[in-house]
Write the structure tokens for this entry.
Amino acid sequence: MELSDFGTTVGEWLTGDGPESDIVVSSRIRLARNLADRLFVSRAAPDQLADIESQVGTFLRQSDGRFGKLYFRLADLGEVDRYVLVERHLISREHASPEPYRAVAASDDERLSIMINEEDHLRMQVLRSGMRLEEAWKEIDDLDTKISGLFKFAFHPKWGYLTACPTNVGTAMRVSVMLHLPALVLTREIEKVFRAMGKINLAVRGLYGEGTQAYGDLYQISNQTSLGKPEEKILGNIDSVVPGVIAYERKARQHILSATRVETEDRLYRALGMLKQARLLTSEETMHLLSAVRLGVAVGTLPKIPPQAINEIFLLTQPAHLQKLVGRTLSAQERDVERASFIRNRLAAYV
Amino acid sequence: MLCQRCKKKQASVHMTEIVGEEKKEIHLCDQCAQEQGLTIKGQVSLADFLAGLIKAPVTQEMARLAKLQCPVCGINYVEFQSKGRFGCARDYDVFDKLIEPLLEKIHGATEHVGKAPPLGGDGVQARLVTLRRKLKSAVDEEKYEEAAGIRDEIRRIEEGESGA
């Protein structure tokens, strides 16, 4: 796996398998760590940060075979490649900046990745398809323990792992689950989910877009606090709450297919039709149509298109990926043309 | 009711003065009240109140703490507030009295009971965290005698630490 492969492949988290994958797209756990006896990123001098990058980078590339191939210093990458990494959820937007001390390491299947010198010295992430928090925790816990065997982490007996921002202190863990909830949006019950999550201190946000209007009907549920509970309890909270949301979505899906069957089927088929035939497709419209198609396939209305194919369309038609695929920078309209063309070709194999 | 002083505007400031056995009622419009030099306790919004609680140190002790500077990274508390980020691990000790209410507000908790790194100095840190987690479960399970024992052990270690 190399950077050049990113234009045509997706990471493991988009293979569309895993438990409950008709509704749960992915599970993600992030741990933040800082090295002891070093200034935090916002305060350290560039040469100090370069030193950290060098030490940690060498360890990851040499001692841990998993990170040998996908190791990048952000300053060495062009803008398109940097945003490819953002679109693949390997780095944050903040990290896509070409300062020389920023780096990222990823395993071949992109399940594990580590940002070096983002807001904290180390931001480790595990990203899995479907509902797999326990497995994910085991993987990242092992990685964390392994790295801490060689590098001393900033840790306080009272406040736990010390982070640049106090909102992350303690376990320094953020757990999130990405859910596809098109039926709850259609039945206008999505607000109830927001309220219910808020009551138990979980955050919900649309993955793309503002507030409750999420493009693509993709929502992320995550913990809001990281101090005062052990990691297993934080995971347990989300693990126990998500099945309820899944059941709620399934019921809503059943409802729209019975109470408003004809309208719903029409909507799903129209979406597929558009994707198959349009000559110009914006990112936003694609997200909207893909959501309907994803739903249609999941409930058996539309012909079977493998979830991975839908996910490939989802990722590879995003702006940076599209430009990587085509091999040059494109204007907005050129992108819309290429996107539509890619989708027509990709779908032709199935419909 | 009309203002007692100008007798033109409606009274909006009402004061009751009780001196000994005497009770005096004063009703003024806000202009006259201002001219009389009466300070008016205006309405404080909850948001302002909370912001005030966090931003403006109310006691002398807190005012002193707000001037503290970390000897390692040089940050002072005002700088932290404007950026929202700490400069180094030492800040958590230097500003601990100011951080505690902040963490309580953010997380609803002020103590870590989760994982600890294996290389934790002499292992005392890791032990403390494990003990705290045990204490929490003992209390949750209402095993109070056990909890008391754990609490005493924590105290012994903490006192031993600060003594050393």
In short: The first strand of chain A starts at residue 24 and ends at 33. The first helix of chain A runs from residue 46 to 63. The domain at 3-253 of chain A is CATH 3.30.590.10 (Creatine Kinase; Chain A, domain 2). Chain A touches chain B through 42 residues (CB under 8 Å).
